[in-house]
Design goal:
Distance between the termini of chain A: 32 Å
Largest sheet of chain B: 7 strands, parallel
Shape of chain B: globular
CATH topology of the largest domain in chain B: Rossmann fold
CATH topology of one domain in chain A: hypothetical protein PF0899 fold
Number of strands of chain A: 6
Number of domains of chain B: 2
Radius of gyration of chain A: 17 Å
CATH class of the largest domain in chain B: Alpha Beta
Number of helices of chain A: 2
Structural class of chain B: alpha/beta
Oligomer: heterodimer
Order of helices and strands of chain B: EHEHEHEHEEHHEHEH
Largest sheet of chain A: 3 strands, mixed
CATH architecture of the largest domain in chain B: 3-Layer(aba) Sandwich
CATH class of one domain in chain A: Alpha Beta
Number of helices of chain B: 8
Chain lengths: ~110, ~250
């Protein structure tokens, strides 16, 4: 359940940003999360409900941009979507691939007031 | 800049007012008393910063820090005990032990005569760079040491947290099944060496050495392997030579 410590880090970032903006409320938070970031979306949901209680994010609307992962094959240069780390290049069946998208885990924006 | 309409208000984080009337045709309704802050910050930013700081400290002292990860019961502590005793006269070791509770592992390491610090994570399922930062500060590490960080037994959560280590070593045992890399890919993706432990039990379990390597290589084609048994001592020498190859001999200036 590392998702709970991820939620804690998100709260830290949100609190700091709200303070810098002299805001007392966060109405909305937008997150970018890749499908290979190591975050289980259901576990995040559960940890979120528990984690944000009595914090500045308690009533914030959460928006998650789920970023589908893709990779570039180092052998043939093919760019393709991947679901798992062990997926092979669909063109040449090679496993020497580099993941170019899908490892994102960031706070994109906040709406504060 | 206002992220909804693009009007320039100077500072990003300031509360802004528009001196003009306009309609927005965007999904998000524009409330004039609200401000959008573009954050674009990695959630693990703080952890990663501190990990780099740890790494810098280790580099400055020419300390080889290795992060040992595995499921509970794969034999991390036994492997460490063997290594610490066998290479006692060759390398200067220190150990950080991570467990949810107890000092049992630290006691075992301490019995080998090695400097050791125990971190109890309580409810936590992994070590993070902040814990390592504080542990290291209390340890007075010497130059050219080899620092083993034995992470909490867990193949999922520790994968996400950089501690500032030089290399990550994943340990599995033959009793765990040869599809383990496919089930827990993150850890195999981020490790450079995979130690396969308890090979003395191979005759008794349905475990294919070829299959486990094939599975792990699908996830990480550059992963290296060492097959060992801490009970019989078989294969330990190959792990020791890997370790020797990683230790930098200090250069005379």
């Amino acid at each position: 359940m590392h998702e709970l410590s991820i939620v804690m880090s998100i709260i830290d970032i949100a609190e700091r940003q709200a303070q810098q903006a002299n805001a007392s409320h966060i109405d909305e938070i937008e997150l970018d999360i890749g499908t290979l970031s190591g975050i289980e979306f259901d576990a995040l949901e559960f940890a979120w409900a528990e984690g944000v209680r009595k914090t500045i994010l308690e009533n914030a609307v959460r928006k998650i941009n789920k970023i589908e992962a893709s990779a570039t094959c180092s052998d043939c240069g093919n760019i393709f979507p991947i679901e798992h780390f062990y997926d092979a290049c669909p063109k040449c069946s090679g496993h020497l691939i580099s993941i170019t998208k899908g490892k994102e885990l960031r706070v994109k924006s906040l709406v504060v007031s | 800049m206002c992220a909804t309409c693009g009007c320039d208000t100077g500072a990003v984080s300031s509360i802004h007012h528009h001196g003009h009337d306009h309609d927005h045709s965007f999904e998000r309704e524009h409330h004039h008393h609200k401000t959008i802050v573009d954050v674009e910050q990695d959630v693990l930013h703080q952890n990663n910063l501190l990990a780099e700081r740890n790494r810098g400290y280790f580099d400055a002292k020419n300390i080889r820090a290795l992060n040992l990860v595995s499921s509970p019961g794969s034999g991390k502590t036994s492997l460490l005990e063997k290594t610490l005793i066998d290479l006692k006269n060759e390398m200067d070791f220190a150990v950080i032990e991570g467990d949810q509770q107890t000092t049992n592992d630290a006691d075992r390491i301490h019995a080998t005569g090695t400097k050791v610090t125990q971190i109890n994570t309580g409810k936590g399922c992994h070590l993070d760079s902040h814990m390592i930062y504080h542990a290291v500060h209390g340890m007075k590490l010497r130059e050219n040491m080899v620092l083993f960080i034995e992470n909490v037994g867990n193949l999922v959560c520790p994968a996400m947290f950089d501690l500032g280590e030089k290399e990550r070593v994943v340990i599995i045992s033959v009793t765990e099944g040869d599809d383990k890399p496919l089930k827990y890919p993150d850890m195999f993706h981020t490790s450079t060496l995979c130690i396969i432990n308890k090979i003395d039990l191979l005759p008794y379990v349905p475990f294919s050495m070829d299959k486990v390597k094939e599975n792990a290589k699908k996830i990480n084609p550059n992963l290296q392997f060492r097959e060992v048994s801490c009970t019989s001592g078989e294969g330990l020498e190959s792990w020791y030579s890997w370790l020797r190859s990683k230790v930098l001999i200090p250069q005379e200036v």
